Request: fold
Amino acid sequence: MDDPNFRKPSTDHTGPVTAGHMQSSLAHSNYSRTGLTTLKISPAFYFDVEIEGAPSDLRDAVAQSQYYLENDKLGRLVVGRGANDTTAFATAMTLSKLTLSLASRAAVEPISSEAVKPLGTRSEEYALNIPADGSAATLTANSTLGLYRGLTTFNQLFYYYGGPFRGLGLDTSRHYYPVSDIQRTLDAMSWVKINTFHWHITDSQSFPLEVAQYPELAINGAYSPQEVYTASDVQYIVKYAAARGIDVMMEIDTPGHTAIMAAAYPEYVACFEASPWAFFSGEPPAGQLRFALPEVTNFTASLLTNIAKTLPSHYFSTGGDEINKNCYADDYPTQQQLKRTGMTLNGALDTFTQTTHGALIVQGKTPVVWEEMALDWNITLSNETIVMVWISSADAAAVVEKGFRIIQAPSDYFYLDSGAGEWLGDNPTGSSGPFRTWSEAYTFDPLANLTEAQYELVLGGEQILWSEQSGPQNVDPIVWPRAASSAEIFWSGKQPTGAALNVTEALPRLHDVRYRMVQRGINAIPLQPQWCAFRPDACDMYAWFGT
Amino acid sequence: MDDPNFRKPSTDHTGPVTAGHMQSSLAHSNYSRTGLTTLKISPAFYFDVEIEGAPSDLRDAVAQSQYYLENDKLGRLVVGRGANDTTAFATAMTLSKLTLSLASRAAVEPISSEAVKPLGTRSEEYALNIPADGSAATLTANSTLGLYRGLTTFNQLFYYYGGPFRGLGLDTSRHYYPVSDIQRTLDAMSWVKINTFHWHITDSQSFPLEVAQYPELAINGAYSPQEVYTASDVQYIVKYAAARGIDVMMEIDTPGHTAIMAAAYPEYVACFEASPWAFFSGEPPAGQLRFALPEVTNFTASLLTNIAKTLPSHYFSTGGDEINKNCYADDYPTQQQLKRTGMTLNGALDTFTQTTHGALIVQGKTPVVWEEMALDWNITLSNETIVMVWISSADAAAVVEKGFRIIQAPSDYFYLDSGAGEWLGDNPTGSSGPFRTWSEAYTFDPLANLTEAQYELVLGGEQILWSEQSGPQNVDPIVWPRAASSAEIFWSGKQPTGAALNVTEALPRLHDVRYRMVQRGINAIPLQPQWCAFRPDACDMYAWFGT
Reply:
């Protein structure tokens, strides 16, 4: 099952349900009592089979039910896919088990034996009783066949109510963050119920991840031997996160954002440290994987597989943003390969992506990519691929138009690094985007410009800290409490378009969150003068004007 | 003497000087050897009078010389007032004392007796010997009158070479900073040779300063009893700063920025918490001293005096920014008083300012004010008043045009709080100025738009952190290493207009400063990805294009 804190599986349309199907000959005589009370199915839900010598096909049927429960992702067939059930969920009790038993004196026979008995002698009726408070749910019948029919009904009563993706992204390549800083960040994430740590662990500047099969990457690519996440560091962080309800979605950005891999595999990287860097790359140093080469594709697939299989998450990001074509225009190995195969650069990227994604899918991972992979290149992505929107909130519509599920990480609302100004060494008057305040982020409408039918494609969103100008020194104040904004947007469910959350209502609560964080050792920035924090609305601009 | 680290008094045009004036009758027979070696006069310089039974008028003359040395502020009469002597100063030795003695067997008589002896019998000649290395400087003569003449020459050899004001401003009212945070900030200031801590200690939101004579101000005006700087805290901070070469220039902002004084003295404050605040004040809460009332003027003069006299600095800021006239338009006590006296609001402010400044001047303090006092109001400020430019760098010219000395703290270059976005509670799309990067600050030209004759009026400058959205949690990353920019601008001397400092040259050094700060426990922000920090110029935008 997914991280239990990420999914919120639930029965819906259950409640005090007693369904007795009595079928004899062609006459149907049913008795049932149903209800509309919502119940949540516990992540630890199990079927308690209290039948001595239960036949193996009954056990199989139970296992199948468990599988359906964990893997069916059927949303409610209503507008918004159940997003309006938030209130019902808030008070819902939890169903922890269903006890299966046979009536006393019933014979314990395999389903397969019961199923072939002559009509009139089969016992298919069952009693499924699920009290509204979720306690003591039972399924009883006179035969294993009756239990099987009852299980089938049970398996039709639950709906997937996916907890939205509520993430925080952190880039640990431009600057390294010691494990303790990540732990502290995970603690704070858990306090605002963020459920995904999007770990952009490597980039062009450093490769701080120890990979058992490819040790040279970190040995040659990390800033220093101390600035490495060892395999055990990663496992520690994953477990630390999981214990706090947080799934770790790692990203190994490819084929761009990989320059430093040249330190270990120079033959795999084009235009490494080419000059002027701005022609070849979004930022220094230049350098991208030679994805047209089969050996690079195979290496990358193997690298991603080796990393992904150590991680429990269902999700793994392969990046795919900002691939610079100039890098390959004069790259001899790339051009030679394209000429030899008659492929275009686009075609080569398609092959590369399908190969690397295929390897991840084999590992049970859902590939996650940045928006350019869906919008800028003509390549085939698996329908399951999740696309992260970053360049602009305006791009979400184009991505969902292609049918992909998206994670909203738009730079114009959610980039935590924005506003720190130009960092290039000789451009003192250069500008960068403005600082995105908590309240600006809070006004983000995740469903803007989408049709109702597309709403279900919005999985959630995240704020993200790119670390060109950040490190352990400022991670707390630059992230907190701002990152609580998206956490609340996606916890509160998708808002109908146009109904932005109310910043005035949220501010006192966010002050509370922030002061509590400070008490717990997080250096979260103040949002207003302390005078204001103690006086809700006294520091509003418009409230007192009545506008 | 001023804080020895603030002033750098110096002899100039001294060096190995031996000047013997032998005057007899009308015949002048002089012997002198002069040099151009620059010497610095030690802050601890003293006259060592090795004369048994030295007469009191010689002692007075020596005291007078000491006074001149400490108080003459004559700059060199050259373009730039000696700003180009930086190189000479870098290698200059220090003169620590001048030993005065009489030739053996000379009679020890008062100057006043020697001075009235008949011509031909007076001994006015002396020998003043100041070696180029500053050691063993001597003044010898045959009479006290000769010594007096020699002292006079000595008193003409030194020039004031004021070390520029290199400050850091911190607002401790919008949020309180524990003493330990201020200590840590002072440590970092000392590492970049900042010489003034401009302590904006109180404002409208809280009054965290314990004043012995007015304890209610802190008791009722601090955020909490724990968020108070006690008298001993202040003394501790002042001494801690002084030991690190830092003068503490405190600011009690008046008559605006005083709302919270109403918590102790409601009758002294107009429009307290009036609504809508934006009509009455730059930010909430509204409230300003009723400066037209004599009792408020007297109270303020007494308050400032009581605070200032506990502080060793020669400088004390009375603020004076952002006085809002609407606050007084319907304020009954103010209007009644203006009517009774026939005064205008401007006239009342003039009286208030002259009274409060007069009280400070009596305490030996030089008043410092914000630019509005010089530009927006028609009031009489003492010529000694120092004016801080903040609204815009463009305002400096207008202030020096009025003959005032200025400290450059322009918000468009030096405001460290800029870029944090709108903090009002209901204005999520509101903007504030951009973040001022270290390099943008570094391009500030302190002499822009001034004439050469006005250059001497620029005392220096400071970067400043207003604390609406800052506190102990982010003081390190929001201040450091950015505040090093102004420190270097003013340490390096006033640059000729147009010759901005070179950011490309400075960046590697600033990286070094920043990484060293981090080693010492200051959470200074990274300026670039670490990859860049290790590779000077590799992350320049234009360098590789050759533009």
